[in-house]
Amino acid sequence: MEVVEAESPDLTILPLVPQAVKEYVRREHHGDLFLDPYEWMRDKESKRTRDYVAAQNALCETRNAHLKGLRDTLFDELKSHVQETDMSVPVRMNGYWYFARTQEGRQYAVQCRMPVRDQDDWTPPQVDPMGEPGSLPGESVIFDANAESEGHDFFRLGGMDLSRDGRWMLYGVDTEGDERYDFHVRDLGKPVALQPGHAAEADLPEVFEGVGGACFTPDGAYVFWVELDDAWRPCAVWRHRVGTPVESDVCVYRERDERFWVGVGLSFDERNIVIGTGSKTTTEVLMLPTDRPEGEFRPFIPRQTDIEYDVSFACFEGAGENGADIPLAVVYHNAKNPNFEIDVIDMRDHEPPYALGEGVCVAQGSPYGCERGDEVGTPDGQESLVANSEQPITKAYVNPANPAILQGLHGLGIEGIAIHRHFVSLAYRADGLPRVAVMPKGLAAEDFLAGRPWRFTELLPPSLEDDWDTVADDVNETTGDHGEQLWLDAHADPTDHTSSSDGASDDHLPGETRRLYSIGTGGNPSYDAPRMRYSFTSYTRPGELHEFDPATGEDRLLKRATVLGGFDPRDYMERRVWITARDGERIPVSLVWRRDIPVQDAPMFITGYGAYEISSDPSFSVARLSLLDRGVLYAVPHVRGGGELGRAWYEQGRRLNKKHTFEDFVDATRALQKARLADPRRTVANGGSAGGLLMGAIANIAPEAYAGIEADVPFVDALTSILDPSLPLTVTEWDEWGDPLHDKDVYDYMKSYTPYENLPERDTTFPRVFITTSMNDTRVLYVEPLKWLAAMQERGFDAIAKIEVEAGHGGTSGRYKQWRQVSYENAWCLDVMGLA
Questions:
Q1: Sheet holding 32-36: strands in order across?
Q2: Where do the record's region annotations for Disordered lie (predicted)?
């Protein structure tokens, strides 16, 4: 790039707005020339960039000064709902129960542990949640982030690993927010005082500086750590022998393809050190037995372009001849099905290497609508005149090889399987929600040996007593509806949505309210645990941790997140509706509101993401209560580009289909407004990172639909970034967005939507915009939102930014700081809605 000319600032801009000098820089690709007036802001250390940031922060504070009282009120409301002194449920790992304590007035959690009573001790110890860390007999503090963070404005724990005997701890910290971690080895056999500098004697002298991650071998004798290159790409794995200088470490693997990231860890059975390397579309697993840490890593299955796979190991104990164990390799892959399948390989049959597709298929996803769907054969006994890739994503999928619980589901995606000594769990997605199934290990062995579908049972979290959250039974097998399609009947009168007992009209939003929740297995680090832990949450129900016994069906609540201040989940409603996008695709939208406040022409907070196959699943938020209690309708369009309805949903919102993400969000917004559920004059949209790109795009596409836009760390100068291979993440991102550097069609497509380059002219009506960003963000560089901000202000649009100088991509660290931040953001949103 070269500097072309300088231009004087436009003096017609509002006097309080900092004037950004225009200094045009050429960007020329594929015969297209773009003159960028604000590229000079990329010089992070220059005085004028720093001065500009300071001036923008001053403007933000001035413009929001009148909201200080509301911010304090929102902070107090949030704080009043939180039990500040609390603890997690202890988790057993080897010879200890591990748990975390939080204490009133302290920013960070304290990590503690207690020894198990004996080898059969699988009942978590009763620990007083109000007690001081280390106060109980046998309890010890292994890491106090409050003491460790002394003297740092930013502090984040970047991982923690322990040797099998519990003596050695490997931990990483980030004090800059740039996601480069310094890892240390600590001897937990030495006493650790709770005060700054306490680690001097307990920590060994070797430090792994600025790395991406690290893990121990089970005996704690070796550390394998991940190198980051100049573009912040995890690119190599190194071996370190504990007690020797870091300078003598050996590189054991280096990934030469810049599209691939690497990571390292232990297999679940701790028999192998595992290197995983992958791009957005291709993965490979390399292994080395833990008893030979200085050996050579070898691929389990050599990489194949556009094929993703993972592998784990287990066995069916005593299920073989004469009571012998049956060793198993469990392979999760999409070589034959784009929505993945799980194959279980009997390792008695032959020695490695193995092939993708080998073994017994336990579960297979739906190929409908997928780009590679036509490669999947038609299940036996079925005929279809329509190719799989042309089938509707929401068409019910039937495959005789699948377990009974997977038959007839919509948007079926397989997400993984876990085999423990006493149980097997299956994770999958259907109807836009995560699901879990479980079965006793003995039944799995019987089904495997008999060659029949496994007898999984879906795990359903308990309903609230006397509440509305029952599962709808009126599913339309053709469309996948649950009777929840948003009312859009043009000839009817859209004036009343308040007549039914659940706060929405039975006529205008017909059907039973669908249960919305996120569920997943978690807290099961031990292979030998006799019972399975699972957690679930919803928009209206705080998180719960349960323990389930597959052998007896007993479901025991271990902990429910405490929400103080008279909170009752029955005071709130959640519902999934479906709207029709402009191309005919049906888009699920989650709605949440306070039950006793009519949902009619309501102020609306609508948020989305839609990228990287990441699903925006239901979750509880204490901060959200302050919005709902003021009559705000909370909406989440599950737009394409995410993974809510499997791989096809993702494929239809990436690369040259990316505009579907923006259109889905706008169409959902307009549908809710047309149905008189939401008022466009009081609608605020929110999204962060790739969701910030979504915010910039919808502001350009449909400015009339939004009164305000909150864009957090927004990826709004996407084309400039994706054209520069030297920037962090760029090359790896080509699989997600396309490669505009070498492909003119991708360049033209991205240029047609990237927000910074497509802002409307000065006289256009445009929503108010509030931006958050950080100078240390390595995922979305601060320069993108700063340039976007300057361009909007130059046009006279009402745009301000709060720019953190210490934080990273995830914002500030420390829970009280984070509560202040979300209260700041919510106060701005409420002000736009006229509720300040």
A1: 3-7, 22-29, 32-36
A2: 492-524
| Torsion of the alpha carbons at 791, 793, 796 and 798, rounded to the nearest 10 | 120
On the question of pLDDT at 202 being above 70, the answer is: yes
Contact predicate 14/798, CB 8 Å: no
Cβ neighbour number for residue 570 with a 10 Å cutoff: 14
Gap between the Cα atoms of 337 and 354, Å rounded: 18
- Quick one: average pLDDT of 155-170? 92
d(CA 274, CA 265): 5
Strands 602-607 and 633-637, sheet pairing: parallel
Mean pLDDT of the chain: 88
How sure is the predictor about 466, in pLDDT bands with cuts at 50, 70 and 90? low
Transcribe 391-417 into DSSP letters: S-TTSEE--TTS-GGGTTEES-EEEEE
Residue 681: is its pLDDT beyond 90? yes
Interacting residues of 676 by C-beta distance below 8 A, sequence separation 6+: 494, 495, 497, 600, 601
Q: Kindly tell me if the per-residue pLDDT of 488 is higher than 80.
A: no
User: Could you tell me the maximum CA-CA distance found in the chain, to the nearest angstrom?
Assistant: 89
Question: Which residue bears the tokens 């470490």?
Answer: 249
Residue 353 confidence (pLDDT) = 78
pLDDT digits (tens, 9 = 90+) for 219-262: 999 999 999 998 888 999 999 999 999 999 999 999 999 889 99
Task: Give the tokens for residue 199.
Answer: 């680690």
Give the span between the Cα atoms of 677 and 603, in whole angstroms. 9
Per-residue pLDDT of 769-823, as tens digits, reads: 999 999 987 778 999 999 999 999 999 999 999 999 875 555 566 788 889 999 9
Distances (CA, A) of 173 to 155, 660, 673, 680: 7, 39, 46, 44
Enumerate residues 6+ apart whose C-beta is below 8 A from 287: 267, 272, 273, 274, 275, 297, 298, 299, 300
Q: Strands, DSSP E only, in 476-531?
A: 518-521
- DSSP-based three-state secondary structure for 21: coil
Report phi then psi at 140, rounded to 5: -135, 150
Residue 645: helix, strand or coil by DSSP?
coil
Query: 0.85 exceeded by the pTM?
Result: yes
Beta carbons within 10 angstroms of residue 825's beta carbon = 20
